[in-house]
Design a protein that fits this description.
single chain; about 675 residues; alpha/beta; Mannitol-specific EII, Chain A; Rossmann fold; 4 domains; 6-stranded mixed beta sheet; 5-stranded mixed beta sheet; 25 helices
């Protein structure tokens, strides 16, 4: 840890390019040239992905592009002093001091702490002034190493990454009892290396200037030290400057809260402190719910209602999938010919559930096929799978409620989902019941309550009242009409034949290939797996169409980049293509995301055409899948399996051929050209 930065990682007053992408790419090449990373383009791609989520330009002519990347082998800092500066999105103009912070994907906490010290040093004017005045790379190295504690010098090392920052208050706003206002803050960013600690120091300085007692808990990648609960209890207000969820947010229950993104904590710390002071004296101010919150990235701007509902529903689906996979695959396994066969669903009776040990002995020793040991084990697998699949709707409802109200919402959600099953309201009833249970639990947790009552709220009072309200509404008012609607929908799907079924396959194929694991993809998948609970032919066809279409994008990207048109893809894309073979065969649509992100205008349309072809063929052939996931590894649960493979191959080939044609003839790329340091790069025509 004595050479995080070296003279070879520094570019002083050198023209690295006219935009930030060129600067980041040039710094990534410096890191690779020093043997600290294996692939400059991969490091650039990871840093650029972070840059696109939130620009890294900061006030004062500073930019800190950063990434945790598998391409990095040694934690490193690369530095450029630019003349002229380059726009990195800071509110006050271009940046002339740019640090690329490169950490391995599995970096140790000690290394991350060193890198975070640099970010905190950038908040100090004498540090940045020294960088601007340095005449040689060696001077820059010395200044940085002293700041991060790798060398002894005049500058004191920055605080450690995990320690909360605190300052003694001067004269400032006072609480009603005459003492200084007390504020606690939490900062965190997506990578937990740079912005987390810069926001912590900026808020600390702003609190000192305002004369308030402010203590910050930075929640970084190098670990975090939770604030003592007595400090939180004594606080008058809370500041959450976060781009990711606050860890253990329930600790701050009942406190007035000001929320923002982490960058605002760096750029507008004084305003945040002022807002927190105002909230401390305002009984109507927003407060942290008794249940905590799982609302994800927050900001002072309200998230749209549609975006919030989307997040909530996708949370429910993601937690539901393991129940579906476990139960559905066990049912599929029970259908294996050497176990129960498909007839086990109707004929297993009490074979696997009564007097289990004695039944096992009976079938293993006395019975011959077809009712032998395999039949018994198939019956057991079917029974376990059927029970597991029965949790599909309650789990969906429970974790939708969890996404809204955290843990206090789980029990009301599960109960509302179970009532939906009881009323035959299906997954739509579970979805509505989960939303009702979650919002009721959330509203119950909002009011401030006496300290002695806070412990009872999340474990007794909220679950009790929320369960009664949400399940009561489902049982008395909503369940019956939703059940009628689900019956009509099921009848419609079961009645689809010919062109109607093929049209449904096209729609499902388009949805699965549009955003590759995003909201549209998840809606189609949730629709398919929820239907498996009905165990009808229509539900099996829909599941097969969804799974086959979802496998097309990664397989097509692999075929195009590693077989058909290798020269049209970068080295990194070819590596991703090799990995995409297995991802596609396993039904992991996300394997195509790197290609879609790099070239969306050609990749996404290609995926859509191939997905539509596969979905249509699945329906035309009448292919059914009794397994909710697994790709080619669950062919035993797909019938007819040969038609599934034909449909999959057709969509894969169509997508790959269209993509190759688009790459060759639409926005065609020139051959590889040399760049300044000798590394090849593709340039657009």
């Amino acid at each position: 840890m004595s050479d995080t930065i070296t003279p070879a990682l520094i570019a002083l007053d050198a023209p690295l390019g006219a935009d930030k992408a060129a600067v980041i790419r040039a710094l990534a090449r410096l890191v690779v040239a020093e043997g600290r990373a294996t692939d400059a383009e991969a490091l650039f791609a990871d840093a650029w992905e972070r840059e696109e989520k939130d620009e890294t330009g900061l006030p004062g002519g500073i930019a800190i592009p950063h990434a945790k990347s598998p391409a990095v082998t040694v934690p490193s800092l690369a530095f450029a002093r630019l003349s002229p500066g380059v726009d990195f999105g800071a509110p006050d103009g271009p940046a002339d001091l740019v640090f690329l912070i490169a950490a391995p994907a599995d970096a140790a906490e000690a290394h991350l702490a060193v890198l975070s010290k640099l970010a905190r040093s950038l908040m100090q004017e004498d540090f940045t002034a020294g960088l601007r005045a340095a005449r040689t790379p060696e001077e820059v190295v010395h200044i940085v190493r002293v700041a991060i504690g790798e060398e002894v010098g005049a500058a004191a090392p920055a605080p450690t990454a995990a320690a909360p920052a605190a300052v003694a208050p001067s004269s400032g706003p006072a609480a009603t009892d005459g003492r200084p206002i007390r504020i606690v803050a939490v900062t965190s960013c997506a990578t937990g290396i740079a912005h987390t600690f810069m926001a912590a120091d900026a808020l600390t300085a702003a609190g000192k200037e305002a004369g308030v007692d402010l203590i910050v808990e930075p929640q970084g990648s190098s670990g975090y030290q939770p604030l003592p609960q007595e400090v939180i209890e004594a606080a008058d207000a809370v500041i959450f400057a976060n781009d990711v969820d606050v860890r253990e947010e329930g600790r701050f229950a009942g406190k007035p809260v000001v929320r923002s993104g982490v960058k605002r904590g760096i750029e507008q710390p004084k305003q945040l402190v002022a807002e927190a002071v105002a909230a401390a004296g305002n009984p109507a101010a927003a407060r942290v719910a008794s249940s905590g919150s799982t609302a994800g990235p927050t900001s002072t701007q309200k998230v749209s209602a549609g975006r919030n509902i989307q997040r909530i529903l996708l949370t429910g689906v993601s937690y539901m999938i393991p129940f579906v996979a476990g139960g559905g695959l066990l049912i599929a396994i029970s259908f294996l010919p050497f176990l129960g066969g498909y007839g086990i669903a109707l004929a297993h009776g009490d074979s696997g559930v009564n007097n289990a040990v004695f039944t096992l002995t009976h079938y293993a020793i006395w019975n011959l096929p077809p009712e032998g040991l395999g039949y018994y084990l198939g019956a057991v697998a079917f029974q376990i799978g059927a029970v597991g699949l029965g949790f599909l709707v309650p789990a969906l409802a429970g974790y939708i409620a969890f996404a809204i109200a955290d843990r206090p919402g789980i029990a009301p959600g599960f109960i509302a989902g179970s009532i939906a099953v009881f009323m035959n309201a299906g997954f739509l009833g579970g979805l509505i019941g989960g939303l009702i249970a979650g919002y009721v639990a959330y509203l119950l947790g909002k009011p401030a309550v006496p300290r002695w009552l806070r412990g009872l709220m999340p474990v007794v009072i909220i679950p009790l009242i929320a369960s009664a309200i949400s399940s009561g509404l489902m049982l008395i008012i909503l369940g019956a009409p939703i059940a009628w609607l689900m019956t009509q929908l099921t009848s419609f799907l079961n009645g689809l034949t010919g062109a109607g079924a093929i049209g449904l396959g096209v729609i499902l194929g388009l949805m699965m290939c549009f955003d590759l694991g995003g909201p549209v993809n998840k809606v189609a998948y949730a629709f398919a797996v929820a239907g498996l609970a009905a165990q009808s032919d229509a539900s099996f066809h829909i599941m097969a169409a969804v799974m086959a279409a979802g496998m097309v994008p990664p397989l097509a990207m692999a075929l195009a980049s590693t077989v058909l048109y290798r020269q049209g893809f970068t080295a990194v894309e070819r590596e991703n293509g090799a990995a995409a073979w297995l991802l596609g065969l396993s039904f992991i649509s996300e394997g195509a995301i790197p290609f879609a992100a790099a070239d969306p205008l050609r990749v996404i349309p290609s995926n859509l055409v191939g997905g539509a072809v596969t979905g249509a063929l699945i329906m035309a052939f009448g292919v059914g899948s009794r397994a909710p996931h697994g790709g080619v590894f669950v062919l035993f649960a797909i019938d007819p399996w040969w038609a599934f493979l034909i449909a999959l191959a057709a969509g894969t080939v169509v997508t790959a051929l269209i993509l190759v044609a688009l790459k060759r003839f639409v926005g065609r790329q020139r051959p590889e050209v040399a760049v300044a340091d000798g590394a090849p790069a593709l340039a657009p025509a």
